[in-house]
Automatic annotation (TrEMBL):
<keyword id="KW-0521">NADP</keyword>
<dbReference type="InterPro" id="IPR006368">
    <property type="entry name" value="GDP_Man_deHydtase"/>
</dbReference>
<dbReference type="Pfam" id="PF16363">
    <property type="entry name" value="GDP_Man_Dehyd"/>
</dbReference>
<dbReference type="GO" id="GO:0008446">
    <property type="term" value="F:GDP-mannose 4,6-dehydratase activity"/>
</dbReference>
<feature type="domain" description="NAD(P)-binding">
    <location>
        <begin position="6"/>
        <end position="310"/>
    </location>
</feature>
<dbReference type="InterPro" id="IPR016040">
    <property type="entry name" value="NAD(P)-bd_dom"/>
</dbReference>
<comment type="similarity">
    <text>Belongs to the NAD(P)-dependent epimerase/dehydratase family. GDP-mannose 4,6-dehydratase subfamily.</text>
</comment>
<comment type="function">
    <text>Catalyzes the conversion of GDP-D-mannose to GDP-4-dehydro-6-deoxy-D-mannose.</text>
</comment>
<dbReference type="InterPro" id="IPR036291">
    <property type="entry name" value="NAD(P)-bd_dom_sf"/>
</dbReference>
<keyword id="KW-0456">Lyase</keyword>
<protein>
    <recommendedName>
        <fullName>GDP-mannose 4,6-dehydratase</fullName>
        <ecNumber>4.2.1.47</ecNumber>
    </recommendedName>
</protein>
Length: 323
């Protein structure tokens, strides 16, 4: 019998890669989607007919329980969240409801409806926040610096708590930034690669940016969803850092992206205070030694290759008049 998986956030970047991976492995894949006035599920359009979509919302506890009863999944991947850090200062309550309490709603639904499920929670390196230790590991204390980071820390702790309290197979992947040509346009990598492509095509001549000194450990989303799956195949539930163990500044990102199309970034980029955050996470670099040892997981795409892959994809898109 094929294993069944339920993915919340299937329309997002990670959801689309995870659905592809699970289909390749022979899973029956179900995805939860929010109702909207126009159903534009661009990232999973190519999977139409291969995945089954169901309406539901992390805010609606009963929709979660109903979905578990209907789909009878072996594995649940909880990827849905308000995931953009700046928005979390504008909508802190909503962010808390989706990104923090939404996790409890799903865990409660599992506990009462289908306790044998293996549950993956999408935790984040944003929980580390202020630099207390580098590189960051599973044991590094959390000091989140945004309402998003605070909400993710709650989601992380409640996942651990349900594992310990109710013996659920619940794991939390502490994933560092991961990107791809499917990344949302407001995140810094995609913002840069998309705008570089527009500049190269003569559609604009300036790029406003925030803090160019922030450092991130950036990997490829396709690699990271494989780590999620591996976590749920272990004998015991546990938490893992997933990262490349390298860090780079936003400035390096900008330099590589412009250089890819033969342009000098300094002629186009300027600092706009609108993109500077009220509190910043200055330095993230993860130590994924545990994931390597226990899951046999390693990243296959490094920073420069990742940025160039994204620039090349955006050059094609812009040329074709797409976003
Ligand atoms: P995206 O922003 O691309 O996708 C988020 C998904 O969540 C979308 O499918 C969105 O649906 C859905 N969603 C949001 N709110 C709700 C809700 N109330 N009910 C149902 N669905 C909802 O995120 P990513 O794919 O990049 O990230 C996946 C998860 O991993 C997120 O939880 C994120 O916080 C976390 N994470 C991401 C990292 C990264 O670098 N990408 C690193 C660490 C953690 P819709 O299409 O309707 O908006
Ligand atoms: P982040 O990703 O906040 O790390 O969260 P983002 O790409 O938004 O920012 C990374 C860094 O770049 C700096 N920066 C800018 N960021 C944006 N978006 N726009 C700009 O113009 C800009 N200029 C500089 C930021 O200040 C920051 O330091 C992502 C999300 O995917 C989360 O959901 C996830 O949990 C974490 O990664 C790990």
């Amino acid at each position: 019998m094929a294993k069944r998986a339920l993915i919340t956030g299937i329309t997002g970047q990670d959801g689309s890669y995870l659905a592809e991976l699970l289909l390749k492995k022979g899973y029956e894949v179900h995805g939860m989607v929010r109702r909207s006035s126009e159903e534009k599920f661009e990232r999973i359009a190519h999977l139409q007919g291969k995945v089954t979509l169901h309406q539901g919302d992390l805010l609606d506890q009963f929709s979660l329980a109903a979905l578990l009863s209907l789909t009878q999944p072996d594995e649940v991947y909880n990827l849905a969240a308000q995931s953009f850090v700046p928005t979390s200062w504008n909508q802190p309550v909503l962010t808390g409801e989706f990104t923090a309490l939404g996790v409890t709603k799903m865990l409660e639904a599992i506990r009462h409806t289908r306790p044998q499920v293996r549950f993956y929670q999408a935790s984040s390196s944003e929980m580390f926040g202020k630099v207390l230790e580098v590189p960051q590991t599973e044991d590094t204390p959390f000091y989140p610096r945004s309402p998003y980071g605070v909400a993710k820390a709650y989601g992380h702790h409640i996942t651990v708590n349900y594992r310990e309290s109710f013996k659920l197979f619940a794991v939390s992947g502490i994933l560092f930034n991961h990107e791809s040509p499917r990344r949302g346009l407001e995140f810094v990598t995609r913002k840069v690669t998309y705008n570089v492509a527009r500049i190269k095509h003569g559609l604009q001549d300036k790029l406003p940016m925030g803090n160019l000194d922030a450092k991130r450990d950036w990997g490829f989303a396709g690699d990271y969803v494989d780590a999620m799956w591996r976590m749920l195949q272990q004998d015991e539930p546990d938490d893992y850092v997933v990262s490349t163990n390298e860090t780079h500044t936003v400035k390096e990102l900008v330099e590589i992206a412009f250089a890819r199309v033969g342009l000098d970034w300094q002629k186009y980029v300027f600092t706009d205070p609108a993109f500077v955050r009220p509190a910043e996470v200055d330095l993230l670099i993860g130590d994924a030694a545990k994931a390597k040892k226990k899951l046999g997981w390693e990243p296959t795409v490094r920073f420069k290759e990742l940025v160039e892959m994204m620039v090349d994809a955006d050059m094609e898109r812009v040329k074709a008049g797409q976003r």
